């Protein structure tokens, strides 16, 4: 690769290519992470939707398929505050859509994902397993968690959507910062979803962070091919993180409806919505995003309590043959998606990067 760029991250992570597969909880798999790492990039596991033992099983499965390092990603959202009245009103709002598929909404909602900020079992597991890399989304865990992970020799990454968030990561001792642009698919990593969001794009955010941080920056959001990776490197990024690019891989857990939508017109109309999960996330245009367009933010329960309802509605619709209510996360580069095995995709990206 002849393009000059910041190589600190490659040395830190022990990888050959400046390509990171985004964690994508619920979509990425040990097979995907291992394939990407074996191909010279950094594969990732999203374990925010499982518990410590589930994460341990995923780590073991990945290690069985690669002897290279990989990333384990955790959610660091503020634990949800239940609001029984708001949640009941939300279920009432969704009831007609459940009824369309012959189902009733669940009787009540619960916090289906435990935040890493309050998960001592997950921390203990990570300190035992010592993956090469651990990353954080939605903010940071307590300082003692960070200290323990660093003392265990684990490289730490975390996402930021603004310079202020990135500065907080730097001050906390995070080794490299993922600059998540507004274009990115899936959950927006903003620390406080109730705060104002400047909606910085990947280009502007990457340049701001490269200029003002004293650590490697990873560009993320809308990057789908080698030409875009090369552009990110020329902006000063040390690597690019791609998520939507890997959704169509056979190693992905994306269901048939998700794959079909990604390959169709919906890919050209992604929508940022909080209605599916309770936090802003970019999704392929579907029945859920159309419903969400008419919903005030104040009506949506906290993350991930709202997600409990969203998953139940998707299950009801899927059972009736309707894939339009899924959490079909995708970035604005979705029309550039290519369906091929993860290792082959990394090789294609590397070749495109070389040509660029």
Task: Report what the structure shows.
With 356 residues, this protein is an alpha/beta fold. The chain has two domains: 8-79 and 114-254 and 337-355, Aldolase class I (TIM Barrel, Alpha-Beta Barrel), CATH 3.20.20.70; 80-113 and 271-329, no CATH class. Helix content is 39%, strand content 13%. It contains 14 helices and eleven strands. It has helices at 8-13, 30-38, 52-65, 84-100, 120-129, 143-151, 163-171, 202-212, 226-234, 244-247, 256-262, 287-292, 305-319, 342-355, and strands spanning 19-21, 43-46, 70-75, 133-137, 155-160, 176-180, 186-187, 217-220, 239-242, 271-273, 281-283. An eight-stranded parallel sheet has the order 1-9-8-6-5-4-3-2. It has a three-stranded antiparallel sheet with strand order 7-11-10, with no helix packed on it. The chain is globular.
């Amino acid at each position: 690769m002849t393009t000059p760029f910041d190589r600190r991250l490659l040395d830190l992570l022990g990888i050959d290519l400046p390509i990171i597969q985004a964690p994508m909880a619920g979509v990425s798999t040990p097979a995907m992470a291992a394939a990407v790492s074996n191909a010279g990039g950094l594969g990732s596991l999203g374990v925010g939707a499982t518990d410590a033992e589930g994460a341990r099983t995923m780590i073991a499965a990945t290690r069985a398929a690669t002897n290279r390092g990989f990333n384990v990603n955790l959610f660091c959202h503020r634990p949800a505050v239940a609001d029984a009245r708001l949640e009941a009103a939300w279920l009432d709002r969704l009831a007609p859509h459940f009824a369309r598929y012959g189902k009733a909404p669940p009787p009540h909602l619960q916090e289906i994902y435990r935040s890493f900020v309050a998960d001592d079992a997950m921390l203990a597991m990570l300190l035992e397993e010592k993956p090469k890399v651990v990353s954080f989304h939605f903010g940071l865990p307590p300082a003692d968690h960070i200290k323990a992970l660093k003392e265990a020799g684990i490289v730490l990454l975390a996402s930021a959507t603004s310079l202020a968030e990135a500065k907080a990561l730097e001050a906390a001792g995070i080794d490299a910062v993922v600059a998540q642009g507004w274009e990115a698919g899936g959950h927006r990593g903003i620390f406080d979803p109730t705060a104002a969001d400047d909606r910085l794009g990947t280009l502007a955010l990457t340049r701001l962070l490269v200029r003002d941080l004293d650590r490697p920056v990873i560009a993320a959001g809308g990057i789908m091919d080698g030409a875009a990776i090369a552009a990110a490197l020329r902006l000063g990024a040390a690597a690019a993180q791609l998520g939507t690019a890997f959704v169509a891989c056979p190693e992905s857990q994306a269901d048939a409806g998700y794959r079909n939508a990604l390959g169709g017109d919906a890919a050209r109309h992604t929508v940022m919505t909080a209605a599916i999960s309770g936090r802003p996330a970019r999704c392929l245009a579907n029945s859920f995003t159309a419903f969400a367009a008419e919903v005030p933010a104040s009506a949506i329960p906290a993350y991930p309590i709202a997600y409990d309802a969203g998953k139940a509605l998707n299950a009801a619709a899927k059972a009736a043959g309707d894939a339009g209510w899924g959490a079909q996360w995708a970035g604005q580069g979705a029309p550039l998606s290519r369906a091929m095995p993860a290792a082959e995709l990394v090789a294609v990206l590397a070749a495109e990067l070389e040509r660029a």
